[in-house]
Amino acid sequence: MTTLLPTEVPIEFELNGESTLVDVDPAESLLRVVRGPLGLTGAKPACEVGQCGACTVIVDGRPVRSCLIPAVRADGTSIRTVEGLASEGEPSPLQQSFIDHGAFQCGYCTSGVLLRLQSLLENEPKPSEGRIREALGSNLCRCTGYKKIVEATQAAIGELQTEPLEPAPADGMGARLPQKTSLAKVSGAQKYLADMVVPGMLHARVLRAPHAHARIRSIDVSAALELDGVVDVITFEDVPDTPYNSAYRNPNDGETLRYDERVLNEKVRFDGDRVAMVAAESLQAATEALALIEVDYEPLAALTDPLEALQPGAPEIHEGTGNVAAPAKELRYGDPEQAFASADVRLEGVFFSAGAQHANLEPKAVIADVDFDGMVTIRATTQVPFHIRSIIPMALGLPESKVRIIAPDMGGGNGERSDPADEYAVVMLAQRTGRPVKLVNTREEQFTSTRVRHAAVVNAELAATKDGLLVGRRTQATIATGGYSTMGYRVMLSLGVRSAALYNVPNIHYQGQVAYTNTPVGGGMRGFGSPQAAFAIESQLDELAEVLDIDPIELRIRNVVRAGDPYLDLGPDWEIRSAAAADGLEQLRERTGWDAKRRDLLEPRGDGKLRGIGVAVGSHISTVMPYYRDHGDAQLSLHEDGTFIIHVGVPDTGTGSTTIFAQLAAEELSVPSERIRVDTGDTDLAPYDQGAHSSRTTYVAGGAIRQAAADMREQLLNEASQMLELDATDLNIEDGRVQVRGTPGKDLEIADVARWVRYESDHPQRLVAKGTFLPTNVAAPYAVCIAEIAIDPHTGTIDVERVSEAIDCGRPVNPMFVEGQLHGAIHMGLGAAIGEAISFDPDGRLATRSFGAYQLLRAADMPEIDTVILDSEEPTGPFGAKGLGEASVVPIAPAVANAVTHALGERPRQLPVTPEVVLDLLARRAERSQK
Amino acid sequence: MWRRCGISIRRGRRAVPEAASPTLTSSLSDSLPATGTAWALPGTVGEATQLLRDAGPAARPLAGCTAVPPFALAQDPEIRLAVDLLSVGELSDLSGDDSRISIGSTLTIERLACDGEIARRLPLLASACGGIGDEVLRGMATIGGNLLTAAPSGFELPAVIAALGGRLELASANGSRTIAASALADPDALPGAGEVLVSVMVPEAESGRWIYRRLATNMRFYGVAGLAISVPDAGPPAAFAAAGSSRPQRLEAVEQALASSDGFDPREVAEEAAASLECVGDALASADYRRRVLTAVIADEIAGLAGSGAPR
After folding, report:
1. Which residues in chain B have their CB less than 8 angstroms from residue A795's CB?
2. How far apart are CA A214 and CA A210, in angstroms?
């Protein structure tokens, strides 16, 4: 007998041990029921089509993806979510092990990962590492490279075999502290933007272009407006005709930016471009309204290749531009022509790097609210709250003071959230409706409509002496910025100049250009031009090593910069103050057994695979100075209970930066970091900061925090001296207390001082300190990578067996976080090396629209990883620290490409090195051997 | 031994209802909500097929929901009725006799991968199931979905079932029929919108050899092609490939070579076989790559089969 269920039906089940009765739409997913009416937001929506595992829960003892379970099927089951893992308020052993081992960063995937592994351990109490990795194959993580997840799981069952860690301080600089948000992240309590609900809010959806390039002949929204629940629909006819550039930062940007964006467009320039936006009482109504908007498109020829786009006569994506998306950039120092003319060896090659997706697990989201006074509050997944507080008012004609940005902790950054995209239209809907409006991207929208790494074609020439000393480089780079220029100029500039801090090349000529293409818009992505440059440079260094019969590591050691060398592109005032790349090369040569492997790996083994080992070095920056202005402010206040609060504009994208800030302040103040709270990313509460980009968080924002802490320390000692009627020089702060030198027993609690100042002194106040950091150096970090690979000659597939990476990040603030950054960088770098690439169909539509088509490494794909934190100290950084997040990704793909070359004797000149590329290389090798 | 995964086998063959009595026909359209998706829990195959007939294109049969998850239902306003095949108990039967095994269409891939009896009697199938997706996905996805959703990601089992000489038992409101799994190669032979896959019937070979290769990109989750070869000791060999779609494509050159008592050049046979394939290009691999890699793997595998033998 068929049962036809109504659209609302009661179901009953056990949820984390409690009997639960709830009315559901039977076709709705269990994920949405658990997160919605039941309010448990630990299970995360990241793809909602069963490909990522972020929504994993345990149903009747089995792990399932709750996005794939229709709610009605939950009736009569027993369900466990991450909120049910803890017992009597105490984390489970697995949760605690995750905290202790730093097994998460952004935390967005963590609840799903925990439940997958909890289920495994309940069925198999002592799984091997391989079995853990196999089980973990059900879950994607973008941050950790899975290494610390596996280690934490092994530790939880007493099976972790590792070498003893270097002794580390218990707190402050160098301490291996867990993230301050650890408990929240392992318990599901951490609130991401998609988890947040504002009373009375509407739900927005974006109608996105189904063509890569088209003109809108007409658009009819009347049927959508008539749908029950739909409150507003806007199209290009409703928005101000104000061009803007989402990468705008300040008036100094000048002519480098093209102001080519509008809130909504009459012409669409990539598959996924905004056409209209709907606000409705429910997400379902907003979704259904999209299908009712009638748009008549005039499709136009689409361009996906930047070189084709710049050809004379190519269809213009923005009329009158010739598809030139930014001013060309030319850099020259030394005498490159002379250098090439007199060089012993000259090499030339063209290297292509594909565009790539950040693939952060948390989808981009925004909630905009407008109060009675017209004050706009925007909660956004943004790395740059102060930046978008500048650009959104500019586009919408608002005074900047009428906009407040709040950036909660995010589920990954990697550069994706460095400029706004849909936020403008959401604000407009909030203004028009007088209601809060929330937009959360679907995973498909994440792929089509968020920023991507710029595809780049790099024509590179290298000149050297017969001793292997580099004497000149000439580079022409063309990058694809997609439908709008945004950060194209900056990435093109970065591609040309950042590598100047890596090798001593006295003569350089760089020419860069940026092309419009009908592809997703290029933006910031970890490395910001450096990975594309490094692929060319590091490939040519290996070619040079072969030509000169010099070991590739030795060749790099001869040329790599050292402390005291100049930043060649910046002139004599800018000196490299710390650079340990040479040490990294030496250490990895030793640790990997490089010399023997370069010889032995070429010997056939029984499995028929071809093996190789390759090296590469990478660098980036810790600040955008001096090409762009950069400074950070921070504020530190002291509460009367002795707790310090840092206000800083840099949001935490998942790297643990809030903990880093607390450690820096703790080191300066000599107080436990647990007594330091960090409030980030609110433009009304925090002083100005440029945000979490360019690996500047530790160096610049951390520098400002250290200065604020120093100021606070001085204020505290001065106040204590008045309180005790002693000279301030007789006092010191140690172990979280104000101590009188040489007089034990006269200690003061810091809270005593704070209370005295406020309630008893003649100058009552709450102590507030400020710090400003104006970088005086680029403080480039350096990373060295050695990759070992095996190739199946039948299929062309590459198995990366081992990756070793050494990092010069100055003094590490938190070595556990540094390791985590390296592991994540290796994951992203390997992706770029062997699989990650956005691709298009013949009509220019994006082919990689899901985690099923865009290839990300899973746990079983990851190699054995060895990391080294080099002994280094950046004199200009806070306690000797500098950045690392971006530099660490730069050498990975080139090292793999060089390992492929070692294995095959043929060089790949495009990334990623897919199996097809390998088969082509093998075919070329066969042709050569026949000749 | 059939109970390792909680499966109890029923001997004998279940009767497929040819025509169930109508209960909702006249009122079905009135019963559907104005917006959203209604959810139907049919109790029998007959009831399911009747719902599909009556609701026409507005109905969507669902089982594991890995191909059409709830989110996709919400995105598609054309789907007004979800017909939940998991409520039909007979679709999850696993039964068999000495000559064949009948696999209910809603049995999960994981059950087939982990069942000892399947592993013993149909090792090619068990092997293929163990490589699909990931463990959690396998626990939710069904054999029916893998065979019939026509999604490129479900490419594994059509070729495998075809190589095993399997047949698909289909039911509709108009009756039932069976087709050879190999017929899935022909788009015109694919089950219609009102049809439900009831079971997959796979003959058991007395003995023989088999090969299954799932070819992936550099990341093993992302399969791009498959090769399934069955060489029974008594009977003709069968060889099928998947080359970027769920269509099982017969490799006649391979079958002929393996059936012949004459020697053959594996590379020549592989090239001939691969040349006959219609390969699809997509984001994971080009059509050309699929042809090249299948050529190499076919040559490698049939050389092994012709030489020292293969597992079993």
Report:
1. 215, 293, 296-297
2. 9
